[in-house]
Every structure is written in structure tokens, then in C-alpha cells.
Automatic annotation (TrEMBL):
Belongs to the derlin family. It comes from Entomortierella chlamydospora. It holds the Pfam family DER1. The chain crosses the membrane at residues 30-63. This is Derlin. May be involved in the degradation of misfolded endoplasmic reticulum (ER) luminal proteins.
Amino acid sequence: MLFDLYFIFTYGSQLEESTFAGRSADFAWFIMFTSIASTIAANFLGIYTLFHALLISIIYLWAQENSGRIVSFMFGVQFKAIYFPWVLVVYTFVLSGALIPWGMIIGIVSAHLFYFLNTTYPASGGPRLIPTPPFLYWLLPAREVAGAGFTGNGATANVYRASAPTSGGATGHQWGRGNRLS
């Protein structure tokens, strides 16, 4: 349980500070979408606890956004971040004694569905099929984050930038190019 809490805090905060920097509504939509998709799938499989599905969906999106990063797991075993969710599934499978961790697999599938519909498909020229609902932008308005850039591939950043509504109406503010202070 302590590892789970550590993972959700670490990778959730890294997603919030990098991929979703200043866009709390988009992060909330990711959590809501994966939770709804996981709940629907778990209903058919008879699974009642979905904490691992939420945990692994956060780790999966983090791994997709940081796919080239090298991570270390259990006694220094190193591999690329893209494999991290699958390593956790295998690790759980080995520790559980041949019980398939369906909750984790549901989390990976729901996060992959979100990533595909929100990033991969729009980057290949298709529309963004699951945009963040406008009421979330109203509840959690975007904020400027000093020095925070978008991580991951450029397609992800462009999709998220284009989807966020601007505060100045349909066209947004035209502030100019700005000046450095030092």
C-alpha cells in the first residue's frame, strides 16, 4: 500500500506539473474519463475496487509522455519508462500467485483509450474525440505557470494548447511578444 501511495503521489504530481501544467481542468478530465471507463469495464468483470486501475492509468499516461526516460525499479533494474506499467502488472502477477491483475489491466486500457483519442488520433490528422467539457474549464480555469513547458511529443502539446479555451473570448488576448527582465 505504501508503494501505491508513493506511485500515485509521485507520478500524479509529475503529470500535473509537466503534461498538464496550468491546466487542472484537463487533468481532472483525464481522471474522470479513466475512472468512468474503468468503472464500466469493472462492472462487466465483477471487480469492486478500482484503486489500482486509477494508479496504473496515471502511471501509463506518465510513461507515454516520458517514454524515452530510463526508470529504475526494485533493486536497480533499469528499463525505459514506456514499459513501466507492464512491469508493474507482471510484478503484481508474480506476487499474487497466478491471479491476473484485472484492475491494473483495466486501468491501462482506459488510459490508453484516453491517450489515443486525445493525442495519437488528433496528431495523425483526426479530430479530438473527447475534449474536456467546458464546465471543467469554468470550475478549474487555466493558469499561467512560469517556466512550465509542455513535455512529451510536440503533437500532445499542440493538441492541448488548441483545446484550452482562452479568457478573452473567441480570439483571446494579443499581448505582444514580451520583454525579458534581466
